[in-house]
Amino acid sequence: YLRRGNYNVILVDWSPLAALPWYSAAVINCHTVGRYLADFLEFLINKEYISIMDVHLIGFSMGAEIAGFTGQELGERGLKLPRITGLDPAYPLFNYASGILRLSKEDAMFVDIIHTDGGVLGFPSQIGHVDFFPNSGRDKQPGCNRISTFLRGSFEDLALLGNC
């Protein structure tokens, strides 16, 4: 993509709706954010600024769940996303939910999942069309320390990840 130069990246900052101390409120707000993102994408598609076939949503933790809700919402409007990539989709409070209440393979034509924190903060089981489990997908990956600052979502903190 970088060489071709024909791409757009949209970052969704939903930090006011995801702020601590109430994780449960953030879970509920995932639905709202997904609906607003679907509204925005539908606007871009209807104005022919983008094609639905060029949209690839990528989300980490609750962001992966938001991508799923966005896909569900667009699907109800007759627009099927071609691809969603979930990076450690959130597990707490999503673990007993059915596919309509969390990211699932029905949310896009192709859903791929990368599990690196399964059973703790990330979903431990297969939920996509293709699921990758590096180093068995379990908590505490080799060469990776738990970095609480990364969980704040700050781009400056990405440099702290080192081998992760």
TrEMBL record:
GO terms (BP aspect): lipid catabolic process
Residues annotated as domain Lipase: 5-147
Keyword Secreted among record annotations: yes
One GO CC term, this protein: extracellular space
Compartment(s) where it occurs, according to its Swiss-Prot or TrEMBL record: Secreted
Keyword Zinc-finger: no
Protein family (similarity comment): Belongs to the AB hydrolase superfamily. Lipase family.
Protein name, as recorded: Lipase domain-containing protein
Organism per entry: Diploptera punctata (Pacific beetle cockroach)
